[in-house]
Design the sequence.
């Protein structure tokens, strides 16, 4: 599995590619030190691309890393929480879940489909952190667009995994 070749590509990844990406990230261990390193990678990637993001990493329910770069707002915090909730609920990246639901005609969350819009959002940018296949955390970016946020988080996770 390789990192995205062109993060500015206009078309989103196919659902199949997102499934491959989702299954490619699996660590032998992931704790606070790894979360700090991952957060730094996310910031470095965004900085290299000239983007301002808000980023967070949760281990279980504890937020162990968060940063708000210039150009972001407090509202991005709420977006990240809703994206992370979608990952926890479906055990898949928020972009993969969003793309799957949209393929079935679901364009937004609603109580009618069992997704409270105050808790969940259909947006990219949150990716599960797994250890030996079990969900142990979530890494999230917000502040740009769904595809770019997903790319930043996935690229950082892939680089982190390669160093582990």
Sequence:
């Amino acid at each position: 599995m390789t990192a995205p070749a062109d993060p500015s590509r206009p078309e989103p990844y196919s659902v199949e590619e997102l499934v491959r990406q989702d299954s490619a990230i699996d660590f032998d261990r992931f704790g606070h030190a790894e979360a700090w390193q991952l957060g730094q990678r996310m910031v470095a990637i965004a900085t290299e691309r000239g983007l301002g993001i808000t980023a967070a990493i949760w281990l279980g329910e504890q937020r162990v890393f968060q940063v708000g770069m210039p150009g972001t707002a407090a509202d991005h915090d709420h977006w990240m929480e809703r994206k992370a909730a979608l990952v926890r609920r479906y055990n898949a990246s928020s972009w993969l879940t969003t793309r799957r639901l949209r393929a079935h005609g679901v364009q937004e969350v609603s109580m009618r489909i069992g997704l409270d819009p105050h808790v969940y959002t259909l947006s990219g940018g949150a990716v599960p952190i797994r250890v030996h296949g079990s969900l142990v955390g979530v890494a999230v970016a917000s502040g740009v667009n769904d595809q770019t946020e997903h790319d930043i988080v996935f690229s950082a996770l892939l680089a982190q995994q390669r160093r582990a």
The mean pLDDT is 92. The radius of gyration is 14 Å. The helical segments are 15-24, 32-48, 75-90, 94-103, 146-163.
